[in-house]
Amino acid sequence: MKDLRELLKDSCEAVKNNPVLFVAGTSASIVTGWVVYRWTRYRVLFEPIFDEKYGVKAQRIPRKVTAGKVKGENRGPNPADPPSVWEDPFFWMRDDKRADHRVIAHLNRENAYFDHKTKHLQGLKAQIYKEFVSHTKETDEEVPYPHGDWFYYTRTVTGKSYKIHCRKPAVAGAPGGAEQVLLDINELARGRKYCDVQSVRVSPDHSRLAYTVDFVGYETYDVLVKDLSTGRVAPDVLRDTAGEVVWGRDSAELYYTTMDEEHRPFKLWRHACGAAQGDDACLLTEPDELFWLDVDKTYSGRFIVVTASSPTRSEVHILDLEAAAAPALRLVEARGEEHLYRVEHWGDELLVVTNADGCINGKLVRAPIATPGRAAWRDVLPYAADTRIDELCVFRRHVVISGRRGGSKMMKILDMSKIPLPGAPGVTAASAAAALAAAGHEVTFPEDCFDTFAERNRVYDSDVFRFGYTSLVTPRTVFNYHMDTRQRTQLKQDEVPGYDASLYACERIHAVAKDGTRVPVSVVYRKDLAPGGAGGARGCMLYGYGSYGICIDPSFDSKCLSFLDRGIAFAIAHVRGGGEMGREWYEKQGKFLTKRNTFTDFCDVARHLIATGRTSPALLAISGRSAGGLLMGAVLNMHPELFRAAVAGVPFVDVVATMADATIPLTVTEWEEWGNPNEAKYLDYMRSYSPVDNVRPAAYPSILVTAGLHDPRVGYWEPCKWVARLREARTNSHPLLLKVDMSSGHFSASDRYRLMRERSIEYAFVAHELGAAALIPPPAKK
Hints:
By secondary structure, this protein is α+β, with helices and mostly antiparallel strands. Helices cover 22% and strands 31% of the residues. The strands form eight sheets. Strands 32-33-35-34-36-37-38-39 form an eight-stranded mixed beta sheet, sandwiched between helices. The protein has a seven-stranded antiparallel beta sheet with strand order 9-10-11-12-13-14-15, with no helix packed on it. Strands 3, 4, 5, 6, 7 and 8 form a six-stranded antiparallel beta sheet that branches. A hairpin with a 2-residue loop joins strand 4 and strand 5 (150-156). Helix 1 (2-16) packs antiparallel against helix 2 (19-42). The longest helix has 24 residues, at 19-42.
């Protein structure tokens, strides 16, 4: 490249002052510019950027990859010796600095091929994008929530890409007076391709605002503090934090975490506002690479809670902000094998949700603040094996338990003032049971297939609990719930322009897995285009995730209307590895050496939809992101014949090579999720499903793969390597496309309009592949 540039420079000097050569030079400069552009962007001169049918042919440069013992490297406590070694021909695609010209050129070639092969979809993409926007109330405002002497809320404005954070004074218990704009993210994002604001926290006296921002997509955040009386942003910016920030006892101090080289939050800091970051006090360092630090504050505002956790263990420290002396961290309970717990504060006690004593789905216990360790824990409620406890929302008199039972969300309200202390004088087992029954009740919900969640509840001394509710056919709705009278008041339901809920239906069905396990499936469709029965097989988009115990609950997404109104049903497979059916669904049946259940469950759900006449292999598309992308890669290798099309977003597909290498960000802590392939007992099992390692000669369906250049969770090179292997092995010529976002990370675009554009091409790809490009008008109402 250096020789080419010098040659061009010499040529330009020769032509610049020579009239005879000027005319010829003008034409030559166009050609020269074209050559330089192609070389700089694609690393090609006159040869094609890609092959019309094959796509981008990736160069093979074999390099040895090792799972097991490697001198000087962290390979876990029991690495295999001798290690397992194999060749990776596409290892060169990995560039941790995202700066290698050869790699960037390869990604640009993939994007050029994607653009070329989707030209015929541009009209459909534009139509679907228009539909997305038409179903969005672009200028909107969330329900203001009370906090101190103010009501806080966010709003959006037509044509603006980001939220605006605002507040109004509280007047007679309602928002009143002039609006004060606290943070306009549109201004923050001006001139930038990416802008993610993670935390926005007002100080205890409401005079300052702390917020965290990432301008790259690598999930490394700066903390900024704004004076709300002057609008000035303080010069003492906190750099390279993990994104969470918590105020201390007043507006003078902040708590935050920073990350190590592997992108793991591992240090807790206290910052005095106005001081330099270099003067901050480090309060805790977590040396174990399996553990992450997280910082939060209790609902009461009294305690800072610092949790060190891995997928299987946790340890909590608390810091009392009401302590007379300078507050110091106190340990609640030391970490123990397979022990997970989390802490909240109520009255003179700590409330602890723990899986101790075989309570895998969690039980609620209480402990004195002075002696918070496990020896002092006493049950608040008896353990219910069929109910998983997820979160606590704590008020002065009540506690709201959010969890799930039978695959659906649940909320239980406890009046703590009516619950007797264990061992108190005169309390018998019978009287305690009667008191518990009288002290608690569950919130009821109108549908069988739904999602519900706590909204912002910032008034500790309140009998009103605010929660949200949604389903596949019900837009997000916000309620105030009086915890004593059990009366609920609807505050707002999101307005969805052009949407008539009466035209659509959702249901919960079950597929039977090969081992007899019933796998829940949530399905939504337009009633006049119902799949199966008289309507016959129809198009279907089947979505899955199935990892980390994360639940994919059925919630409303207006974008889905672009599928439903084309006769494409949308289904969610709640496969093992998720947490929909409790912790055992994940811990015992969907991770480590049972992980293949996730993939076989998904295939069994697909077979069920086909066998019941709801769809057919020619009309079935599938989709998943991140670990859900792993799911896509695994099932496509196992049973490509079941599917017509697949969309794999930022897919985790090079499982063995990634998990064996501790230098890749976020890898070590994942050993307690997938297993460590450096250990012999995991290597062969993980290799049996790792998508990159199981690509084979087969007629794969049409596949669209996405990646983010700055993704810290799934390196962009994983989908690149997977696509390269698929191109070499597949036996047909169905579309196989890779789209790499060069300006964002794991979560795609931060700009809401740009995100809709990105999703519109994915929807257009699927609709075209299923032969459902045209909208189907709904039947006329009688």
